[in-house]
């Protein structure tokens, strides 16, 4: 009897598995809608590319879990396809050609403004030459302001706040920090890093004319292995704070070197909340590291709590703890645009993306059609110990997290633009 019962259970399980398989194949009667991720997936800045990939995979899983894209002919899932740019514009352009040859018409990228600029130009030229194979480009992190100003494109949409918007949000905190009378500016020597320091100088002159800039320099992007010489200059300058747009290893190694030489000042950063920085600084970063973004793990409210906890359930390893709300909204905007366009024609998708307006976990945003710059609230945070008031969650298992000290509304964060959008003829 026991043998027969076991056999019946086995048969029942096999039937269930067969039913699930058949159900899955009927749901996905159509081929997946593939999205090309062109990103730095190798080399010293690869951690940022992998973090982007995790966020985008999680976003596609959410769309697929609710049944995928509702399109003529049946539901279709989303699928991410990786292309390694190695952080180089030439490699990114080769990856773009490969993606187009592979039949992909949606491209995503973010972790280099220089690469984004090259992709915008290449996609614009390609779309003119081959109108039947046009491509749309969604940008989640390349924040050089020029990309939605002088170099704006109908085919490009930016979902991150650009550098000037982030700087303005940071300045709302820095201008009130009267303990800082001397500041050191340092950044990566390429378009984004240059834009950060340029805007930093301009806004400091306007908002804190009493503050002395005691250092202002650029360093090679992703090539410096030892930041001790830079950190030594920062300490010897007498600076009480550092202003930087550095990311990835260039930020982690910089703050580590500053700690090692005994620099006791603050870091006003764009990306100081993750990718190794809290763990490197430890107690030395409490009350010293300031960052700005659209969303953080300790944003108050139950919707934000549930959103963050679901991400951590999906990616439980501490080193994978870097979630971006903007990437989730970006994928939702794309899914919405494809469904409203009822297909994958790039111009139709772009026309719908211009109208994107979304809300998730208490965070909302909309696309500004005039320049394709996403408008959303920004938050400024400061590093603190986990368990301190308003710091329920730490970053990357470090024991240190970030508490919100300033929320800048979308209306306050938005800035004028110089984009002269050229739209394709219908």
Description:
By secondary structure, the chain is an alpha/beta fold. It is built from 13 helices and 17 strands. It has a seven-stranded mixed sheet, sandwiched between helices. A five-stranded parallel sheet has the order 4-1-5-6-7, sandwiched between helices. Helix 9 (277-281) links the parallel strand 11 and strand 12. The longest helix is centred in the first third of the chain and has 26 residues, at 2-27. The protein starts with a helix and ends in a 13-residue tail after the last helix. The model is unreliable at 1-26 (pLDDT under 50).
How is the topology of this model organized?
Elements lengths: L1 H26 L5 E7 L6 H20 L3 E3 L2 E3 L1 E7 L4 H13 L4 E4 L3 H17 L6 E4 L16 E3 L4 H12 L7 E7 L2 H17 L4 E8 L8 H9 L4 E4 L4 H12 L5 E4 L7 H5 L7 E5 L8 H13 L10 H17 L4 H8 L3 E4 L2 E6 L4 E4 L1 E8 L14 E9 L1 H4 L13
Parallel strand pairs: 1-4, 1-5, 5-6, 6-7, 8-9, 8-10, 10-11, 11-12
Antiparallel strand pairs: 2-3, 12-16, 13-14, 14-15, 16-17
């Amino acid at each position: 009897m026991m043998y027969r019962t076991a056999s019946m259970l086995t048969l029942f399980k096999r039937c269930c598995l067969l039913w699930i398989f058949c159900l899955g194949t009927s749901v996905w009667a159509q081929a997946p809608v593939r999205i090309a991720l062109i990103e730095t997936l190798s080399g010293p800045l690869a951690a940022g590319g992998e973090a982007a990939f995790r966020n985008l995979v999680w976003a596609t899983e959410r769309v697929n879990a609710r049944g995928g894209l509702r399109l003529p002919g049946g539901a279709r899932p989303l699928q991410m396809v990786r292309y390694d740019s190695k952080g180089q514009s030439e490699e990114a352009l080769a990856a773009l050609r490969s993606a187009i040859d592979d039949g992909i018409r949606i491209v995503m990228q973010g972790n280099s403004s220089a690469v984004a600029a090259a992709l915008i130009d290449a996609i614009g030229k390609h779309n003119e030459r081959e109108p039947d194979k046009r491509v749309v480009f969604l940008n989640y992190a390349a924040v050089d302001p020029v990309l939605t100003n002088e170099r704006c494109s109908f085919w490009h949409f930016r979902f991150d706040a650009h550098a000037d918007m982030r700087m303005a949000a940071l300045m709302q905190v820095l201008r009130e920090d009267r303990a800082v009378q001397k500041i050191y500016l340092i950044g990566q020597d390429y378009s984004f890093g240059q834009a950060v320091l340029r805007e930093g100088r301009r806004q400091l002159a306007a908002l804190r004319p009493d503050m002395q800039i005691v250092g202002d320099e650029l360093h090679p992007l992703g090539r410096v292995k030892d930041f001790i010489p830079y950190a030594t200059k920062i300490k010897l300058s007498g600076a009480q704070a550092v202003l930087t747009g550095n990311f990835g290893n260039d930020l982690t190694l910089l703050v580590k070197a500053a700690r090692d030489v005994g620099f006791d000042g603050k870091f006003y950063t764009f990306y100081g909340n993750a990718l190794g920085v809290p763990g490197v600084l430890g107690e030395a970063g409490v009350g010293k590291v300031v960052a700005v973004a659209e969303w953080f793990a300790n944003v108050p409210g139950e919707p934000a709590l549930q959103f963050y906890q679901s991400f951590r359930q999906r990616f439980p390893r501490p080193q994978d703890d870097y979630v971006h709300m903007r990437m989730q909204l970006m994928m939702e905007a794309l899914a919405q645009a494809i469904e409203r366009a009822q297909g994958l024609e790039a111009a139709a998708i772009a026309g719908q993306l211009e109208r994107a307006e979304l809300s998730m976990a208490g965070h909302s945003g909309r696309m500004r059609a005039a320049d394709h710059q996403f408008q959303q609230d920004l938050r400024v945070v400061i590093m603190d110990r986990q368990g301190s008031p308003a710091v329920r969650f730490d970053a990357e298992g470090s024991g240190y997290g970030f508490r919100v000290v300033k929320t800048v509304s979308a209306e306050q964060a938005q800035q004028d633009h110089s984009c002269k959008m050229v739209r394709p003829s219908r």
